[in-house]
Amino acid sequence: MEKTGVEPGTPLAAIYAMARCFYNWTFIPYAMYSLCGLIVAYMYFNRKKALSVTATLIPLFGDKVTKGLWRGVIDTLALLAIALGLASSLGAGLALVGSGIETTYGIQQGPLLWLVLTAVITATYTLSALKGLDKGIRWLANLNAKVFYILLLALIIIGPTLYILRTSTAGLAYWLQNFWGWGLDPIDLGGEALVMWWTLYDWAIWIAYAPLMGIFLAVISYGRTIREFMIVNWILPSVFGIVWFGIWGGTALHWQQQGVVNLVDTIKNSGAVAGLWAFLDHLPLGAVIIPIVMATLVLSFSTAADSMTRTIASLCTLSITHDQEPASWLKLLWALSIGIIAFVMVAYAGGAQGVDGVKYLAAAGGCAVLFIFVLQVASAIKMFFIDKVKD
């Protein structure tokens, strides 16, 4: 393992893998969403400013930032970033589900299959977005959460419980021990391949989502205190991420070490997206669980896409309030645009594995909005600490 000092295939390698999952997917990325959501909510509900990305920069630049050219540039960049981020996520989902269908049912994946999947997923999140926050988005999110709980329960029953507890605990400790090293000197300690193609790719998508996800979190958090907001949007999702990776990742690591399934060879020979299906194929009742996982992937993307489609349409609407729905034609326009971009990138820039093109797309979205995100962080620090604004 390049530059990590960890020997592949050893127990330490399993702990290292678990720690990197916690590092990439829990407290750090959810902090991005929570910070953006907190400052949007505070500026809108407490300061009575506009429900927009530019309003979050008022503590730094004053009200002038919400007028004229600056507002147009900042909001447009945020819109483009989230559109690219959503298209990237959908593209990765198309490749993953397509790989599962090919592996499980023998249907060759290619542009035709990806087109059908794009149509199904796009129709799902479009209908949800058109139904609005209460009748569509909330219902779909609740359904998705219940399916995730069922999958967790299944692995708790099937998986190696003691190994999961040991590896998760050790992985958490290893992550905390290396927190600052990985964060401040990532390539030398993590290896260029790992950092460039996984950590930066993952976080590019999170950053691309963050400014507009902040608006959505603000809208659904009316009436909450800052403490409640941070618990619900930062602490609890991060803890769930640790539990999820601990149970599912721990089971996969144990099976790899015990020789139940050779995921390393599968990924080397068939690509990263094939690893999931090789793992699921070895589960008891795999024939039942695999379709459920495919449906969960569709639901997961739809849950993110319907909320972001609504938020994008809201940002394109002047003087909209948090309890108003944007025009249906705007939701439809953005929903279809995201689906088309994702299909084109997977079909013509991603290849059989369907990941290279969408990774470049995600990086483009993250880079486009990075400077806005940095300014939002600075604005929050100034407002909540320097200016001593209190809850």
UniProtKB/TrEMBL annotation:
GO terms for cellular component: plasma membrane. It is found in: Cell membrane. GO terms for molecular function: transmembrane transporter activity. Its main location: membrane. The chain crosses the membrane at residues 27-45, 77-101, 113-133, 145-165, 203-222, 234-255, 275-301, 332-350, 362-385. It comes from the Bacteria. Keywords: Cell membrane, Membrane, Transmembrane, Transmembrane helix, Transport. It is a multi-pass membrane protein. The keyword Cell membrane applies. Belongs to the BCCT transporter (TC 2.A.15) family. This is BCCT family transporter. It comes from Geobacillus kaustophilus GBlys.
